[in-house]
Amino acid sequence: MSSPAGTSTLPMDQSWRNDTAWAARLTSDRVRAERNQTAAQRLVTATVLERALGQGAEAVALTGSTARNRRTAISDLDIHIVGSRPRFEDLNEGLDLYATSADALWERLRAGDDFIQWTLRFGCILVDHGVFRQALTEIAETGLWPDPQRKHDRAKQLLAFAERITATGDLDAAQDQTRAALTTVARWLLLANGEFPLSRDELSDQVLDLGCVDLAAALSRLIHADPSLQELDSAIEIGQLVISLPPHRARRAALSR
Amino acid sequence: MAPKEKHTLAREHLATAQRELAEGAILPAIMFLHLAAEAAVVSLAEREGIDTKKRHDRKADAAQELFRRGLVPEDLSEALRSLNQVRKDATYEGEDPKLDDEDLEALAKQIEAIVVAAEERAQ
Description:
The structure holds 2 protein chains of 2 kinds. Chain A is an alpha+beta fold.
């Protein structure tokens, strides 16, 4: 799928074949990674990096909300590794390690994966032996755009699971699952409307810009407040309504309920 | 529905996980095992004044602390971190869970011991 016109394509406008542009990106990413992490997070990232490289990793990036400097109370430290996943269970930090082989990265990227594109667009590249640069070059030159249908399918599954967990009465787990589901709904809606989704904390503003007021409000509550089970039921209902409609109508779906 | 007590939820989630496992539904089994373990840890942690701040990593840290204090028979912190990662890989990225029936049955036994500890402490 190609990039829709008019979409913010930062940093896709760059010519990544240019060595100077690439060197500037790497320098700027390392500065950003240093600045956006606490001392404890820097230590964990350095440990993961050392272990990953020790196992032959081809590329490593700090990704997610930390890379955007938009961490919330529930944010993990997200690290994207091209290589095998190193041992992490002994590290006392909320870590989310995403590890794939280079072959799997290419396969997923071309199949419309959005997370890999997210890392390439907004992540802080810490080490790259070539695969991230090649992937960025391909995205910039072909206008490759994530496939919204993948997010739609995932959102449907996550909403169903959120509904199931909410019915158990486990408020914490239900909030966690509903937040994951609505985040995915928002990412689908944005991708399908030609906007690249940013970090979780920025999604409510992005969907608000699309006119999806109820989804924006529900997302914000799920991230920053402690909704009741009844509110979680309503949030799931909003998510189900949004994904039941075509993307152009879903933009205003919740408003017209 | 009113929120239930954590030790009750832990037992219910464990029972659901075991049913899913018996039916060969690996992903739901992983999800419910994770929920059972976390609910049991939070139940015990709250009684000990350990704040897990609704964060998965803090719940894993709490599991380690509960073991250190002799309140649970095993340190489940690494199992919790591992289950959390597997569940996220499977649900968000669509990856096949890298745990089989045997791994999950062994984990279910470990988690049951913590659920029992949470139930005993709640009485």
